[in-house]
Structure formats: structure tokens, C-alpha cells
Amino acid sequence: MLIKAIVYLPLKPDKAKRLNLPVKLPVLAEDLPEILDENHIPVNIIIRGLEAQYEISKDQYYKSYLIYFYYEKVKEALNENNLTEAEEWLGKVEQLERDYRYDFFKGVILSRSGDYDQAEIFLRSSTSKNNYFALGHYELGNLLRSKKEFEDAILEYKKAFESDKNFLLPLLRIGDCYMEMGEVRQACDFYQTAIQIDPNFAQAYARLGVAYNILQKYDHAENSLRKAVQIDKTDYLSLFNLSFTLSRLGKHFEAMHILKDLVEKKPQDATIMNEYALILRKLGFYEQAKDFIDRAFEINNNDPSLNYNRVLLTLFVDKEEAIRLSEKLSSPYYEKMEDLITFLRQWRPVDVPDFISDKVKKFKPCMEKGEINVQKLVDLLENEDRINMVKNGILPATDTEIDTVQWLDIVMFIILASNDDPIKMEKNVTKVAVSLYGSGIMLAVAITLMRIFLHISAHGNFDLQSFVNDVVTDIQEYHWQFAKRISELENESFSLEELHLNGIKKGSDFLIELLKILSIDITEEDLYLIEDNLMKEIYLIFQSIRR
Questions:
Q1: Which of 3, 176, 199, 262 matches a 20 to 30 Å C-alpha distance to 117?
Q2: Residue 340: predicted pLDDT
Q3: Which residues, including other chains, have CB under 8 Å from residue 474's CB and lie 6 or more apart?
């Protein structure tokens, strides 16, 4: 029998306690030259020395340390997802002792192997041997959650938290369970509890932001997601979710900047690139939008919705190519695109009303092949800070909070001047709104004004319920709160005398009142009630194109 020489490395008590080592650490003599720093002794050297010591002494004192370091090797193997090695180290533990820790790690290995039934048996055994083992209850909760047994999972997570009030992951997982159960408000309660305990818990802020997005509480979502990325600047998923939130709040430029940075950091992520392309379209950068949607398609050509977006964005740059690409769409996207293409083919421009034709002609020189030249347009306008920048060829790529009726008549004239082609109409309206206002609310207002024109031109009349059903989902993409105001009109009843038609200062208020007045039958005798010239002019334009 080969006798192994053991030397005992003396450690100061405080160092031994910090490193969880015996004050006299047994080390094989052959391993001694490998110890270059007493503060960083390799685990394998510690284990070989403890194994040799226990083999000759069977001392329970050294046995407890040996088992501890076996478990450290089990954890190390699990962290590397090396289940075979983890099983081997756990086998060494089994030869010495089987306690609640053995059952726990056996359950974890079985769970990762996909044997959930056996894993549950071992994890329940672990927690029955030590009912205050927080990690055991937590892993059992994870297992039950993976089996969609949410109520039982929540019970285990609660036991985990009760066992260790500093262990906050169980609160996060309880919230996740409620999210999967569709009980989003209850999920928020647990995410908020975790944040109250640890105000720097980035994951809780991130989850809370997602929950608020689902609840359409976008202001709250913005605050939570900003906090998440402030704490963890590498949390790209929260940045992506924040871009969605900001877009719903009408902060499209900031959302665009976030997505641009994400595309640069994750150039092979087709989902991010798709969203970047969509927001470029929203802000009027159509050629760039097509470039990026094509790149997204090259990365992932198996996503039907991405393929649809590719055809849609191509439509704004090359109509014939878009029609050709549409033939490869799958259902229901093929039918949806076919309806749009049919609408475009059947579109017939309306005659500009005589009473407004001179004003519309004034803007014709700003059009080049049917598309607006914004710099020529702003040359017709009085000097203001934003207008002056656009005149100098600079488009301020920052969000504003402008909400005004100023220039809405120009938007209306551009709609009329562009009505040969609905695609060019949208491009022109978007570019004008982005250039003149730079705000999400006014972009939504301009798009809604255009959609009213298209609705009346296509149907020959205005039906509020039909209009709301047609446009609200689209307008939500520009400004959710404004779209909500439009959708709420369905549940209102109003008469001409009750409308606020005069002295309106905000563009959003103007559009809401315009929708109301369009849904009411007004006689010529009643027109005197509309003292506001802009409201009367736009109302009469729409009245003139009704059939």
C-alpha cells in the first residue's frame, strides 16, 4: 500500500474561517509546491489533502470539510452545465453521507436532465429534512413552475422567502408565476415588494416595466425600465422594451436612438433590426427602413411577420418590387397585403374643392414627382427656431412636446396635393409632421387627419364606429394616449351645441372635436356655430368630398 505523505499547513483562525478551512489544513507533500498563495489554494489540492487525511483518521472534523468541498465541485460543474461531472462528485458525497444537501443537488441534476418527477421527489425530500432551506424551496418552486403548477410553485417560493428574507429571487419568481397566470397586477405587487427591500434590484425593475407595458401604463413602464437600465447598462432586453414604451408615449426619436445603438451592439438580432426599421418608417426615413428590414430578413427569413414588414416597407420605396415579394407571403399576411395592394390599385384621386384650390396650388412647387421637398416647404413659413434649423438642412432628431393647431392647414393642403397616391400621401404627411413639429402627438394627429381623408374618399361618407375600428390600432403605434381618446368616442354621445369648436389651441383636441363634428349631420344653417376658421375650413373640405 502506497503511503501518502501529509503535511499540515497552519492557518490563522480568521483566515481559516474566511476560507472555510481547518486551522491545520492537511496537504499532500507532493502538492505543497503548487501552493503559491495561502489565500488562493486550489480546490483540488484541498480535496486531495482532506481525502488522504480522512482515509487514515476517519475524523468527523475533516469529513465535514471534505463534504463541503465536494459540494463546491458539484456547484462548479452545475455552473458549467456539466451534469456528468456533477453526478460524479455527488457520488463521492454519497459514499460519506446523505443529508438534505445531497437530496437537493440530486434533484437539481435530475431536473436539468429532464427527469422532473424524480427531481421533485428528491427536492421535496431535501426540504422535508430541512424545512428552512431557502434554496431548496426555491429550486422546488422553479421545478413546479416549469411544470405549470403555478399555485404550488408560489407556495414554495413563499417558503423560500420566509426562510431567508434577504433572498429576493423568490419574490421575483412569484411575480413571474402571476404573469404566466395572466394576473399581472398581482405580479406587480411582488416586483414592487422586492424593489422596496432592495432599491437596486435591476431584475425587479425590468419585470415591473414589462408588466406595466402589458397593463398599458406606459408612464410607469418608462420609469421602471429606465431604472433597470440605469442599474444594469448591459440589460439590452430592458433597453429594447424601453424603446417600445417610448414609442407608445410618442417619444419616437429617443426610441430610434436606443434601437440604433442596440443594432450596433447586436448586429445579428433580427428582432431588434425589424423594430428599428419600423420606427425609421414611422419617422419618415423610408429608404433606411427598407435597408434595415432587408438586413433583418437576411438574418431570419422564416418569420412571417418580419417578411410582411419587409413587403410593407418596400412598398414605400419600390411598389413593383413589393408586389412581387408579396406573392411569397403566407396566410394571413398574404391576404392582408393583397387587400392593401387592391386598395392602392383601385384608388381614385378626388378633386380639390374649388374654394381651397388656390391655397393647395401654393404648395405644388414644393412637390417633386409627387413627394414633398421639406426645405422648399419651410421656406414659405415664418422663422421659428425649429423651422430655421430645417431651413438650414438640419432635422432636430429629438422629441418635442409640441401640441398645436399651428400648420394643421398646411398638413391638410399637403394631403390634398398628394392625393394621387396614398403611399406618397403618407410619406409626405409624415415628413411634414416630423419636420414641423417633432412630437409624437402631432405625428399621430397628422396621420389621423390623413386617415380621415382616406376613409371618406374610400367610403363616400364618414362613419365614426367604422373609422375607429379601422385606425385605432395603427394610431396606437404613434401615440397610445391619443389613440385611446379616439377609441373612447365610440362610447360618447354628443350634439353640435355641446362641442368645443372655437378657440382650440391643441392639435390633439382639434382632431377629437373634428371627429365629433364629422359624425353629426350639420345643416348649412348650423355652420355659423363654427366660428373657428381652421375648423370650418377643414370640415368643409371633408364635406365636399363626401358622396
A1: 176
A2: 96
A3: 447, 451
CA quadruple 150, 156, 162, 165: dihedral sign: negative
The pLDDT value given to residue 496: 78
Residue 536's Cβ-count burial label (10 Å; 0-12, 13-18, 19+) is middle
> Residue 117: CA atoms inside 13 Å, Cβ hemisphere, count?
0
pLDDT score for 462:
94
Residue type, 71: Y
Residue with cell 434577504: 166
Cβ burial of 91 (10 Å; 0-12, 13-18, 19+) is exposed
Ordered alpha helix ranges (H), 20-115: 43-57, 60-79, 83-96, 100-113
Q: Can you give the pTM of this predicted structure?
A: 0.91
**Residue 73, pLDDT score:** 96
Grid coordinates 417578411 are at which residue? 307
Which DSSP string corresponds to 170-194?
Answer: HHHHHHHHHHHTT-HHHHHHHHHHH
Would you say how long the chain is, in residues?
Answer: 547
- Grid look-up 404550488 returns 152
CB atoms near residue 318 (< 10 Å): 12
Instruction: Give the separation between CA 426 and CA 282, rounded to whole angstroms.
Output: 10
Q: Which residues of 124-155 are buried (b: 16+ CB within 10 A; e: fewer)?
A: bbbbebbeebbbbbbbbbbbbbeeebbebbbb
State which amino acid sits at residue 99: D
Contact status, residue 517 vs residue 501, Cβ threshold 8 Å: yes
What's at 70, amino acid-wise?
Answer: Y
Per-residue pLDDT at 491: 86
Low-confidence ranges of the chain (pLDDT < 70): 1-3, 36-38, 547
Distance in angstroms (rounded) separating the CA atoms of residues 24 and 39? 14
Other beta carbons less than 10 A from residue 494's beta carbon: 13
CB 502 within 8 A of CB 531: yes
pLDDT at 208: 98
Tell me, what's the pLDDT at 204?
98
Angstrom CA distances, 36 to 23, 259, 369, 437, stand at 18, 49, 78, 68
Q: What is the pLDDT of residue 492?
A: 84
Q: What is the pLDDT of residue 124?
A: 97
Cβ-based neighbours of 360, under 8 Å, separated by 6 or more:
352, 413, 416, 417
Residue 3, pLDDT score: 64
Identify whether the C-beta of residue 172 lies closer than 8 Å to the C-beta of residue 194. Answer: yes
According to DSSP, the residues that pair with 256 across neighbouring strands are none
With H, G, I as helix, E, B as strand and everything else as coil, classify residue 367. strand
DSSP state of 248: H
Record the cell numbers describing residue 4, joined without a space: 501518502
Residues 6+ apart with CB under 8 A from 420: 349, 370
Q: Are strands 24-28 and 6-10 parallel, antiparallel or unpaired?
A: antiparallel
Cβ distance 97 to 64 under 8 Å?
no
**Alpha carbon distance 436, 425 (integer Å):** 16
